[in-house]
Design brief:
mainly beta, about 40% strand
Length: about 70
């Protein structure tokens, strides 16, 4: 899994695997899901991140597994 922060476009992108993206759908304003050929979600893009998350929270990342 990869996480990409795009400061220029104010976006955050989670990519779950390297499957080819064949379709994308904006499920809510600024929330875009990317799908593979089997209709599995393989990526999530969040636009306007700085308006959704306080700036101080964007500077750190916590990773949790259960």
């Amino acid at each position: 899994m990869r996480l990409r922060v795009d400061n220029v476009n104010d976006a955050l992108y989670f990519r779950f695997d390297d499957s080819k993206i064949v379709d994308s759908e904006e499920v809510k304003k600024g929330i875009i899901l990317d799908f593979d050929e089997n209709d599995n979600v393989v990526g999530i893009e969040i636009l306007n991140v700085s308006k959704r998350v306080p700036l101080d929270k964007l500077k750190s990342l916590q990773f949790e597994t259960f």
